């Protein structure tokens, strides 16, 4: 028998008392340990009712196209004819054809499957919205409803810039989807996609809004989500939990060709603006003012005296265009158009494009340290204008200035050809100007807020520049203008 000293007995009794107290505090007894049930987990949304409500308005779209194939002639003696029919007329080049076979092969058109996509009903009389790239170059568009009925569709109109298309089937009493308001979307909001990924019609996926107003280079502010979207989902609806369409699924960002967590949808507000024009005329008419623009960098904003980096920097003004008639100049920063603030360069094309041609609009521009208000009559979107070449003059400055430049006068005929009335031509670039990207042949139009009239005035402006601050140099190159920040050398 193992005997314990009195001190050991007291320690064991003390520990037993502590354990019993702890158990009682947890709601149990000295002999049992009672654990309270965990707090109820936050419940996830139930999508079943929304899907039942809207699924019947989503359609599968398949398209066909015509391709030319070479038809083998009968009765020929060429043993390689079938190979050339499959692999093309240049199969086994250099192999002579048997006499009498030349010219007997002919081409024929065949209708072949082109692809699949999705769409959704927007009116009870058969109008359906989908993507431009779903129906582009197709010679046949076929729509299948969820009840299995298939219709051949008529393409009412398409718009490649927004990737939207309006098609119509000969059907009545369809259930259109409710159109929501994409302007009210917020990050983190639940959304659903219904479509036909890889031809698997009526497939539902869910996720959240990852970002809004996502620019991709096409001047279209996309909705970014993490909803699984794959080839075949194009043209299908992006739906909120109220069963309203808030976007049209259009693109994915992927390195594999399949879904990798980033999907892009066209805001339904933008899409419906396009639909109205397509329904009315089969095409989309956009406004334009005749300027080329670029981004306002932090350096340029500071050099021009702007309080913040904002606006669209005018690189070129089209001769005799709406902006030129309104008095817009190269180097202006457009801050506002028709009461809409231009926060980023890409805001301007979208706002102007959505303005009806013929509208008289108000612009606010930043010029020489001040805000100026101009009136412009919006024109209609034209084709790209041709560029005009320019020649370099003969006289030049003899020494390199503080910017590292040598310049020449700009001849009157060159100014006329370019539609400008000022500037000097760079004949040599070194030092800070060269490092900033200015090269021989560039035309300098402005230095900070000073118009450059001739070489003498240019030299005076440059000599007065501070060596502690970058100067903003407006340069014309290849018939387009850009601002370059250059810090003069001491």
Written description of the protein model:
The chain is an alpha+beta fold. Among the domains are: 178-281, Beta Barrel (Thrombin, subunit H); 287-380, Roll (Pdz3 Domain), CATH 2.30.42.10; 405-486, Roll (Pdz3 Domain), CATH 2.30.42.10. Helix content is 19%, strand content 34%. It is built from eleven helices and 28 strands. The strands form five sheets. It has a seven-stranded antiparallel β-sheet with strand order 5-4-1-2-3-7-6. Mean pLDDT is 82; it is low at 21-35 and 383-396.
What structural class do the secondary elements suggest?
alpha+beta
The value of Rg in angstroms is 34 Å
- Helical segment tally? 11
Described by the principal axes of the CA atoms, the overall outline is elongated
Report the CATH architecture of the domain at 178-281. Answer: Beta Barrel
Query: Which blocks of ≥5 consecutive residues have pLDDT under 50?
Result: 21-35, 383-396
Top CATH class of the domain at 178-281? Mainly Beta
Number of strand segments: 28
Strand content: 25-35%
Strand order across the largest sheet? 5-4-1-2-3-7-6
End-to-end separation? 98 Å
Helix-residue proportion: 10-25%
Biggest β-sheet description:
7 strands, antiparallel
Assign the CATH topology of the domain at 178-281. Thrombin, subunit H
CATH superfamily of the domain at 178-281: Trypsin-like serine proteases
- Mean pLDDT figure: 82
């Amino acid at each position: 028998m193992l005997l314990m000293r009195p001190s050991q007995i007291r320690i064991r009794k003390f520990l037993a008392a502590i354990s019993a107290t702890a158990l009682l505090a947890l709601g149990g007894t000295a002999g049992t340990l009672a654990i309270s049930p965990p707090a109820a987990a936050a419940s996830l949304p139930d999508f079943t009712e929304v899907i039942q409500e809207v699924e019947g308005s989503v359609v599968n779209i398949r398209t066909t196209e015509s391709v030319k194939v070479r038809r083998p002639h009968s009765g020929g003696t060429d043993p390689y004819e079938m190979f050339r029919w499959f692999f093309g007329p240049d199969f086994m080049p250099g192999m002579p054809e048997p006499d009498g076979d030349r010219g007997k092969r002919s081409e024929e058109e065949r209708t072949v499957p082109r692809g699949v996509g999705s769409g959704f009903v927007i009116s009870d009389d058969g109008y359906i919205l989908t993507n431009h790239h779903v129906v582009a170059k197709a010679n046949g568009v076929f729509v299948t409803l969820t009840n299995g009925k298939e219709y051949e569709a008529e393409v009412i109109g398409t718009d490649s810039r927004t990737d939207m298309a309006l098609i119509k089937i000969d059907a009545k009493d369809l259930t259109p989807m409710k159109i929501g308001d994409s302007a009210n979307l917020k990050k983190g909001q639940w959304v659903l996609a219904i479509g036909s990924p890889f031809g698997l019609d009526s497939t539902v996926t869910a996720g959240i809004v990852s970002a809004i107003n996502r620019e991709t280079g096409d001047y279209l502010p996309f909705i970014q989500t993490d909803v699984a979207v794959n080839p075949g989902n194009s043209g299908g609806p992006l739906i909120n939990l109220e069963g309203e369409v808030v976007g049209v699924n259009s693109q994915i960002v992927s390195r594999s060709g399949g879904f990798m967590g980033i999907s892009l949808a066209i805001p339904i507000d933008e899409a419906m603006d396009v639909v109205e024009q397509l329904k009315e005329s089969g095409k989309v008419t956009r406004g334009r003012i005749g300027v080329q623009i670029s981004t306002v960098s932090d350096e340029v904003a500071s050099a021009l005296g702007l309080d913040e980096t904002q606006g669209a920097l005018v690189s070129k003004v089209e001769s005799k265009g709406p902006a030129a008639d309104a008095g817009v100049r190269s180097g202006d920063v457009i801050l506002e158009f028709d009461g809409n603030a231009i926060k980023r360069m890409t805001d301007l094309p979208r706002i102007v494009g959505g303005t009806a041609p013929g509208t008289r609009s108000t612009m606010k521009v930043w010029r020489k340290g001040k805000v100026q208000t101009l009136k412009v009559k919006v024109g209609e979107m034209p084709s790209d204008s041709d560029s005009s070449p320019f020649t370099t003059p003969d006289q030049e400055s003899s020494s390199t200035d503080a910017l590292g430049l040598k310049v020449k006068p700009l001849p009157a005929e060159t100014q006329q050809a370019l539609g400008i009335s000022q500037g000097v031509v760079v004949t040599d670039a070194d030092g800070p100007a060269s490092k900033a990207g200015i090269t021989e042949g560039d035309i300098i139009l402005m230095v900070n807020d000073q118009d450059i009239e001739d070489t003498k005035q240019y030299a005076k402006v440059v000599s007065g520049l501070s060596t502690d601050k970058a100067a903003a140099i407006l340069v014309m190159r290849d018939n387009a203008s850009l601002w370059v920040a250059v810090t003069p050398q001491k």
